[in-house]
Design a protein that fits this description.
224 residues, alpha/beta, Rossmann fold, eight-stranded mixed sheet, globular
């Protein structure tokens, strides 16, 4: 893998941290956890891999109040700085929800991969109300989840023309039911399920996760 290049971009007067490695078509990964993601390391010989830490996460600034712009605008600020005109976006868990909102918001996202998150079910009204009332969740996550919850994702996914892949483990609490899998396929979404794996076992930080190879193959089959 080429040397990892850690960089900083400015958004709404705040500092965004991100890392770039490799060359080729761009794969952008919204990153909410510390440490490097396994696909970032393993796929840099095929792609320009970009890990972006949105405001409120990891090493980026944590402004409060949080900028009102959508998270896709932070992603595009980095892509503009790196001269990336279009990209595949891939996220897991909350990052998977972020990938959906990014692909929904900008045509520059040409493919979308969401792992470990049931987009059709999202968050309950009660959970969201408790989050906003108690304010224990950091402001970056609170802002994002309120934004995410404002959309009808069944309708949004139907309107998104880009190739889409969603995956999860059979032991994951975010596993998509057979009924919802049928709905996703009806919306033109590819699905993958990993037998015997829980949420962590499918995660982007697990070196034994089969997701890296499956997603790489899927990207290539869709011309990326």
């Amino acid at each position: 893998m080429d040397a990892v290049r850690w960089k900083t971009a400015t958004f709404a007067g705040h500092q965004l941290r991100y890392a770039v490695a490799g060359s080729g078509p761009a794969v952008v990964m919204p990153k909410k956890d510390r440490g490097s993601y396994v696909p970032f390391e393993r796929l840099a010989d095929q792609y320009t891999m970009v890990q972006i830490e949105p405001l409120g996460f990891c090493r980026s600034d944590r402004p409060d109040p949080y900028p009102s712009a959508g998270i896709h605008e932070q992603i595009l600020a980095v892509c503009d700085q790196e001269d990336i005109p279009e990209f595949a976006v891939w996220g897991f868990s909350q990052g998977g929800a972020m990938a959906c909102t990014i692909a929904q918001a900008t045509p520059r996202a040409r493919l979308m991969v969401c792992g470990g998150f049931n987009v059709l079910r999202g968050l309950s009204d009660a959970w969201l109300a408790r989050m906003n009332r108690e304010r224990r969740v950091p402001v970056g996550s609170r802002t994002f989840w309120n934004w995410f919850h404002s959309y009808n994702w069944h309708a949004e996914l139907r309107q998104m023309a880009v190739p889409k892949l969603m995956y999860w483990g059979t032991l994951d609490a975010q596993r998509v039911s057979l009924k919802d899998q049928h709905i996703l396929r009806g919306l033109g979404i590819d699905v993958a399920e990993f037998a015997g794996l829980d949420h962590g076992g499918c995660g982007l930080g697990d070196p034994d996760s089969p997701a890296t190879a499956v997603v790489a193959d899927w990207l290539q089959r869709h011309g990326w």
